[in-house]
Specification:
binds nicotinamide-adenine-dinucleotide, 501 residues, six-stranded mixed beta sheet, globular, single chain, Aldehyde Dehydrogenase, Chain A, domain 1, 24 strands, seven-stranded mixed beta sheet, 16 helices
Length: 501
């Protein structure tokens, strides 16, 4: 069994650098908490500038040999990694639940999504191919484009998908011949510790993959390091904006995914018996802490009352508790600070005039008095000017708004500063098509509450939800982690006659 020491007592988590586990002498460290119990389960160090430099240097040293390793061999490391992930998926899922709080079923789903990126990256010999044209630059002069890796890349990831998010990037970066450094969220560093145990077993040469623990200062040190060629960031919009500006000013490639406020539009012909479970999973799955969580509903026309009643029934069925308990359907939020921030947003919503229909308070499931639980919360009567409509809450809070027409509902989607995802529930193809065409969001769901792209499609948003051009996953990731070199080639022949073959 794969394990990470989680005994209070508390080993400081090591970094993984140059093919070995490195304990840090860091003077600064932070507690890692199980949000279901409030217990400290590990201690995470804050890597210093020197620690970051050591990781980047080891990645830089490994680059030359790794980039010349045949793509087929690099792909074989992906197959080995996938086998290890399958063998240890239970350990990974349990660790995700312990450090993040989401249910075990949800944690398994995110391991699956991580693994699918490894599977796609195993196709790198095909994905990375260039293209060429015989006589492309003139008679007897052929032209060719080859994809080449660039050097050392880094990922800086958020707390809400401890295992999956770094895997939107790492498999593609490494399969294309780059070397890599991951900085996990300081709130959830344990899953990446396990992931790196597997990367170690998969036999990547020393320095190809590296793990540095730390907080925002560590993230900035990576962004500023002169040998880092590009940054893949996922987190809140203010941080994404900061990382994008700082990394691009230093001339680096950067893709920075930010926060979200996703709207689900329910049309009068929606099949409520099917739609409601989708909506509930979207709003309350992972306690609303998914970047694709639907946090607002817009009911169109007369569907409002029936939908509201069905939603309230379903919310009443949600069982809140420790995600390790298989009967639980919603876990805690990540921290006491997050819980208090969410409860403040609820108070503000009520003060602004929205009608609280369900929840709105703290919860203390039996045996979990010190966990960070928030009741599943539903507001009706939300209007576009309210903070409930404008600000990302990132917790189990769903607001209901009303529109008379599809046009008005689309206007509400467009009035949000964010553009990660939007969904429509309808059986009318014309409405669905109008919706998908007019909304400016990265991911559209039609009768799908969580429109999460599969690994072979790009994962990214629009407007304030994404800064950059190329997204994570699939071909976008291959483009991000490679550059194209053009080769124009002719042969004069031994006698200089200019033979063309
Ligand atoms: P966060 O922005 O607080 O932190 C993300 C990462 O950035 C962490 O590793 C953290 O250490 C680092 N960081 C934080 N502040 C920083 C700063 N000032 N300078 C440099 N680095 C800094 O985000 P979070 O709370 O961990 O994650 C939740 C957020 O992530 C939500 O807003 C959610 O919508 C978003 N998210 C977006 C997507 C997406 O695909 N768009 C996916 C998952 C999560």
């Amino acid at each position: 069994m794969l394990d990470v020491e989680t005994t209070p007592g508390l080993r400081v988590l090591p970094n993984y650098v140059g093919g070995g586990w490195q304990p840090l002498e860091s003077s600064e460290s932070l507690p890692v908490t199980n949000p279901a119990t409030g217990e400290t389960i590990a201690t995470v160090p804050v890597s210093s500038l020197d620690d970051v430099d050591a990781a980047v240097r080891s990645a830089q040293d490994a680059f030359e040999a790794w980039r010349h390793t045949p793509p087929l061999e690099r792909a074989q490391s992906m197959f080995r990694l996938r086998d290890l992930m399958i063998r240890h998926r239970g350990d990974l899922a349990r660790t995700i639940t312990m450090e993040h709080g989401k249910t075990l079923a949800d944690a398994h789903g995110s391991v699956q999504r991580a693994m699918e990126n490894v599977e796609v990256a195993a196709g790198i010999p095909t994905l990375m191919m260039g293209y060429g044209l015989e006589n492309g630059a003139g008679s007897g002069i052929d032209e060719e484009a080859v994809r080449r890796p660039l050097g050392v890349f880094a990922a800086i990831s958020p707390f809400n998908f401890p295992m999956m998010v770094p895997f939107w990037f790492l498999p593609y970066a490494v399969a294309t011949g780059n070397t890599f450094v991951v900085k996990p969220s300081e709130q959830v560093p344990l899953s990446q510790n396990l992931a790196f145990q597997l990367l170690e077993q998969a036999g990547f040469p020393p320095g190809v993959v590296n793990l540095v623990n730390g907080d925002r200062s560590t993230a900035d040190a990576l962004v500023d390091h002169p040998d880092i060629r590009g940054i893949s960031f996922v987190g809140s919009t203010p941080t994404a904006r900061h990382i994008y500006a700082r990394a691009s000013a230093a001339g680096k490639r950067v893709q920075a995914a930010g926060g979200a406020k996703n709207i689900m539009v329910v049309m009068p012909d929606a099949i409520l018996t099917k739609s409601v479970s989708n909506i509930i999973n979207s709003a309350f799955g992972s306690a609303g802490q998914r970047c694709l969580a639907g946090s607002l509903i817009v009911t169109v026309g007369g569907v409002h009352d029936a939908l509201r009643d069905a939603l309230l029934d379903a919310v009443g069925q949600i069982k809140v508790g420790n995600g390790l308990d298989p009967s639980v359907t919603m876990g805690p939020v990540i921290s006491g600070a997050a819980r208090d921030r969410i409860l403040q947003a609820v108070e503000r919503g009520a003060a602004e005039g929205a009608t609280l229909l369900a929840g709105g308070g703290k919860l203390q499931p039996e045996g979990h008095a010190d966990g960070y639980f928030v009741e599943p919360t539903v507001f009706d009567g939300v209007t576009p000017d309210m903070s409930l409509a404008q600000s990302e809450i990132f917790g189990p809070v769903l607001g209901i708004m009303r529109a008379e027409t599809l046009d008005e509902a689309i206007g509400l989607v467009q009035s949000s500063p964010y553009g990660n995802a939007a969904s429509i529930f309808t059986e009318n193809g014309g409405w669905a098509r109008e919706f998908q065409t007019r909304v400016d969001v990265g991911n559209v769901g039609v009768n799908i509450g969580v429109a999460a792209p599969m690994a072979y499609f790009p994962f990214g948003g629009a407007r304030q939800s994404f800064f950059g051009t190329l997204h994570g996953q699939g071909r976008d990731a291959v483009d991000f982690f490679t550059d194209r070199q053009i080769i124009i080639r002719r042969w004069f022949g031994a006698d200089g006659t200019g033979v063309h073959w």
